[in-house]
Amino acid sequence: MANNRLTRLNESSLSASPAKGLVARKISLIVYDFDGTLVDTLFDIADAVNLSLNELGLRTLSRATIRKYVGKGVERLMAQSIDGTGYTDLPRAVELFRRHYSENLMNHTRFYPSGREILDHFRDKKQAICSNKPEDFVRRILESLKSLDYFDAILGGDSVESKKPDPEGLLHLLDRFQCSPEMAVLVGDSPVDIETGKRAGVYTCIVNYGFGNPKEIASANPDCCIDHLSELKDLFY
Length: 237
Description:
The chain has ten helices and ten strands. By secondary structure, the chain is an alpha/beta fold. The strands form three sheets. A six-stranded parallel beta sheet has the order 7-6-3-8-9-10, with helices on both faces. Strands 1-2 form a two-stranded antiparallel sheet. Strands 4-5 form a two-stranded antiparallel ribbon.
């Protein structure tokens, strides 16, 4: 299977579907990014960042600015948040963020529309999370949303050696479920997810409402884009 991972998807798993002029793909594994894809976490992340910055005596940031920093892990999030302030103790900033976020994890966080519906729809498939968010935060959010049982595997940014866009986590999931790349899809919201999928030979489906920059997403050339999670029902079976 290792040699097949770097091949692009072939047409053997396709069947006719009217959705957006595309064709439905037969899959056995659906892998979701988390923040900005399945769950809207922006307000709670932004609040935790600003609580941390305030405690450090630094200026706070708008949600729109913080939104651009989400998706590459906590260390990168806080490194960008303190950039230009003259403050250099990144480990302390990360520590504060983890504490504030842990204490305010579910103030505003919710599924995106049709999130739970989609998880229920694909219950006959293997479903997994592959996120750069710490695994404990992912699990706690899913537990609060009473949706932990939908997933056969959950990988956070600290679950494997290398974060996305390194394909290590995605390749691990393919191995774990003995799934060939052409029978899997990665649903995400950013160029990081697109690169991850391409490097693993997995089809990429990008949501247009997430945290990713639209121009950067277009340049990264995902296999397909959707405006609403409910569209997954027409694209994969």
